[in-house]
Amino acid sequence: xxxxxxxxxxxxAVPQATELAAAGVTIPHYISGHYRWAYLWRPGVWFFDHxxxxxxxxxxxxxxxxxxxxxxxxxxDATGSTVLIASAYGDLVxxxxxxxxxxxxxxxxxxxxxxxxxxxxxxxxxxREKAELHLMDAEALDFSDxxxxxxxxxxxxxxxxxxxxxxxxxxxxxxxxxxGQLVITEYGALGKEHVLHRFPPLRWMVMQIxxxxxxxxxxxxxxxxDDCARASGxxxxxxxxxxxxxxxxxxKRFRVEDLG
Length: 260
Ligand SMILES: C[S@@+](CC[C@H](N)C(=O)[O-])C[C@H]1O[C@@H](n2cnc3c(N)ncnc32)[C@H](O)[C@@H]1O
Prior knowledge:
Layout: H1 29-32, H2 36-39, H3 42-48, H4 51-57, H5 62-70, E1 82-85, H6 92-99, E2 105-109, H7 112-124, E3 131-135, E4 148-154, H8 162-175, E5 176-187, H9 195-198, H10 200-209, H11 213-217, H12 221-231, E6 234-244, E7 249-258
Parallel strand pairs: 1-2, 1-4, 2-3, 4-5
Antiparallel strand pairs: 5-7, 6-7
Helix pairs in contact: 8-12
The structure holds S-adenosylmethionine.
S-adenosylmethionine binds at residues 28, 31, 39, 86-90, 109-111, 114, 137-139, 154-156, 159.
């Protein structure tokens, strides 16, 4: 298996912004450049973490996306440990923690301010004890191979340039056990039917918000995930796909297996 770059060991405590350099985690250029105002700038973070704003960005589909995502997680013992690879606005984090029952949840994010939000929401929901928070880059996960039963990426891949996306997928699959699952909630493939796909000005508008989305739209996600699995010495089988908003968004579930 190809050696994958890792971060220095992560701490369980929620780091402050000033600890960022000390933790050896660098904010990726696509965040510090394009998404700074949305993910790092405090007034922006405050603004975007309101449900009407979130729903505006995802065309009113947030609830459906979260519901379809959470359908792949449940409180039975079989669910085991779950890692959320990058936090998210809205109530995904506390709802996932609640949904998992006694099964452990790990949430990572490269931005301390985002981990702070997750921390606050988990505390407000009385669920903080059930989750570990880690300051970590999805492109260089500092977890052991096969550490988790489930992994979730919620609207992360579309924000990444292609090379970063592949690294993040390779790491996600590396840390998921054979027999475990990777759930990916994302934009759907670019088609000819959906009104937001058909009209270039509408596509242009969406891409002003998500500049790396085009490369995700135009690639076969399942093939990309399988390629990345093979680079991590594993393979994946697509076991479920739900389409939301006529396929503009999708939730895909992959079973992760050893290659051999
Ligand atoms: C997963 S996306 C979700 C976007 C969506 N608009 C939402 O909030 O529901 C946003 C999060 O990903 C985090 N993120 C982006 N690139 C990352 C990376 N390489 N490693 C870890 N977290 C990352 C950002 O800091 C941010 O908290």
